[in-house]
Q: What sequence folds into this?
């Protein structure tokens, strides 16, 4: 049964403030092992703040959040079980460094300060590159990669820790539409091959509705969460984005869903 899977993230009545404003309000959910979650919401809805709370970078005003059964600040060495790719690149792609060396930077927490990588570390790096289908580029200078390839290297760097939980914050923000669609397809395939829990923050409603197993709709509070086909409808989108929201629904025939003047709810 689904509920028998190990709990990875447990959030209970979570309130978080960011820059003196309430960013998250009464958020409750549970993420279990191997699930692929997509977190949707407009700018300023608290999506990145939620990831930061999972990482222990911001503290709750009230309520609780646990990762692997403990508060994030108490993870200690278990922090290496979490891989994280931020919204903004943390690699200088103009720096003359090879792909494999950039990915090795992801194991720095496990290596410790001043320690040189050993054979198991390089094996983990190459395994991570194989998972993101970039092993053939291991010796290439990172500045010679395309945008989509760079995103895969950033994910490989997170996977080099051999995590159980992977957090991706807007991984396609700098990619064009065509590249983004291919990236989401690849991400879905990668998740299917791995025993890992994946949390994706994105604005791409269509991609989330097609690929993730659970979607969480966030606008400071948790509007709803569940299977995409069950919770992604016009009413939910209006709660998140306003009454003029629209989105493309994938299926046998992709189509756009828009509110009709008569069908839209009046909001004051």
A:
């Amino acid at each position: 049964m689904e509920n028998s899977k190990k709990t990875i993230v447990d959030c209970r009545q979570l309130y978080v403030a960011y820059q003196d404003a309430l960013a998250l309000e009464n958020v409750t959910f549970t993420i279990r092992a191997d699930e692929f979650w997509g977190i949707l919401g407009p700018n300023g809805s608290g999506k990145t703040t939620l990831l930061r709370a999972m990482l222990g970078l911001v503290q709750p005003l009230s309520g609780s959040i646990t990762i692997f059964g403990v508060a994030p600040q108490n993870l200690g060495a278990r922090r290496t079980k979490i891989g994280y790719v931020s919204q903004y690149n943390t690699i200088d792609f103009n720096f003359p460094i090879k792909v494999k060396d950039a990915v090795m930077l992801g194991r720095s927490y496990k290596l410790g300060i001043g320690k040189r990588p050993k054979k198991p570390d390089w094996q983990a790096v190459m395994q991570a590159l194989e998972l993101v289908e970039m092993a053939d580029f291991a010796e290439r200078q990172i500045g010679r990669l395309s945008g989509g390839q760079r995103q895969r290297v950033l994910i490989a760097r997170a996977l080099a820790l051999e995590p159980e939980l992977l957090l991706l914050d807007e991984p396609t923000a700098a990619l064009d539409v065509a590249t983004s669609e291919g990236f989401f397809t690849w991400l879905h395939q990668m998740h299917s091959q791995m025993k890992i829990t994946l949390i994706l923050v994105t604005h791409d409603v269509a991609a989330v509705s097609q690929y993730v197993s659970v979607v969480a709709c966030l606008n400071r509070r948790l509007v709803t969460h569940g299977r995409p086909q069950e919770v992604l409808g016009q009413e939910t989108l209006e709660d998140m984005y306003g009454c003029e929201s629209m989105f493309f629904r994938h299926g046998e025939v992709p189509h756009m869903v828009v509110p009709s003047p008569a069908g839209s709810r009046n909001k004051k």
In short: The longest strand covers residues 7-18.
